[in-house]
Amino acid sequence: MDIYHKILELIDQHSSFAISAHVNPDGDSIGSQLALYSFLADLDKHVRIFNTDPVPPNYHFLPFYDKVEQPCTLDSYSPEVLIVLDASTLVRIGGHLSKALMPKQVTINIDHHASADRFGNYNLVESGASSTCEIVYKLIQLSGTKVGYKRAMALYTGIMFDTGCFQYSNSTSQVHHIAANLIDQGIEVDKIYREVYETNPVRRLRLLTKALETVELTPDGKIAWLVVNQKMLNHTGTTLVDADGIINQVRSIDTIEVAIMVVSNTREQSKISMRSKDHVDVGKICAEFGGGGHARAAGCLIDKSCKIALEMVIEVTRKYIAYDD
Question: What's the predicted TM-score (pTM) here?
Answer without folding.
Answer: 0.91
